[in-house]
Each structure stands twice: as C-alpha cells, then as structure tokens.
UniProtKB/TrEMBL annotation:
Listed Gene3D superfamilies: alpha/beta hydrolase
InterPro entries with a match to the protein in the record: AB_hydrolase_1, AB_hydrolase_fold, MES/HNL
Spans traversing the lipid bilayer: none
One record GO biological process: jasmonic acid metabolic process
Protein name: Methyl esterase 3
Residue ranges occupied by any AB hydrolase-1 domain in the UniProt entry: 8-109
Keyword set includes Hydrolase: yes
GO molecular function annotations of the record: methyl indole-3-acetate esterase activity; methyl jasmonate esterase activity; methyl salicylate esterase activity
Origin organism lineage: Eukaryota, Viridiplantae, Streptophyta, Embryophyta, Tracheophyta
The keyword Hydrolase belongs to this UniProt entry's keyword annotation: yes
Keywords, alphabetical: Hydrolase
Length: 113
C-alpha cells in the first residue's frame, strides 16, 4: 500500500536564536517524501528584516506563523513542529487556530500547560 503524503502540510518552527535555515536538511527529506512543507522565519529571526526592538510582544514574534495559518483554506489542517522556543509559537497557534491543527510536535521544545 502506497501512502500519499502530498496532502499533508507540515509547518516547521525554529527555536531561539535560529531561523528557517535550521530545518534545511529536514525540509529536503520531507519534501522528497512528498510532504508540503512550510518553514517560516519568526519575526526578527533568520531573514526577517525586523530588529528585535520592533517586536515588543511574543504575539508579534509569532505573527509569521499566525499569518500562514490565517491564510489557509477553511478545510486545510496542518502538522505543526516546534523546536526549542518554537514550542511556545505552536502553542499560541494551537490556541488561535484549533480548527487548523491536525497534530503538534514539541521537539525538545517548551511546552506550556
């Protein structure tokens, strides 16, 4: 039986002091396996041009992820993977968009109760 991964959308969220670049090997492997993979930079991280002073709240820091989830078609669900500080990002996203989340993976990540 062949598994069709093309309909599965995974969003990888980097940890503290990193950017989307930290997922490059994982992204390539997942895409090769047929998954749709999105790897954003959080605000003031990676290639995002903002300075940390321009990101006063954690919600502002998480806005790139929240924007992606807000732009998804109504019926689409995603798998969120957060590493390190990314666990807090995905927890916030799960609260804001529970209908969009198929699963969440906290990979050596902060996991709020």
């Amino acid at each position: 039986m062949e598994i069709n991964n093309s309909s599965k959308h995974i969003i990888l969220i980097h940890g503290a002091c990193h950017g989307a670049w930290s997922w490059y090997k994982v992204t390539t492997q997942l895409q090769s396996a047929g998954y749709h993979v999105t790897v954003p930079d959080m605000a003031a991280s990676g290639r995002d041009p903002r300075q940390l002073a321009d990101v006063p709240r954690f919600r502002d820091y998480s806005q790139p992820l929240l924007d992606i989830l807000g732009s998804l078609p109504p019926e689409e669900k995603v798998i969120l993977v957060g590493h390190s500080l990314g666990g807090i990002n995905i927890a916030l996203a799960m609260e804001e968009f529970p209908e969009k989340i198929a699963a969440a993976v906290f990979l050596s990540a902060y996991m709020p109760d």
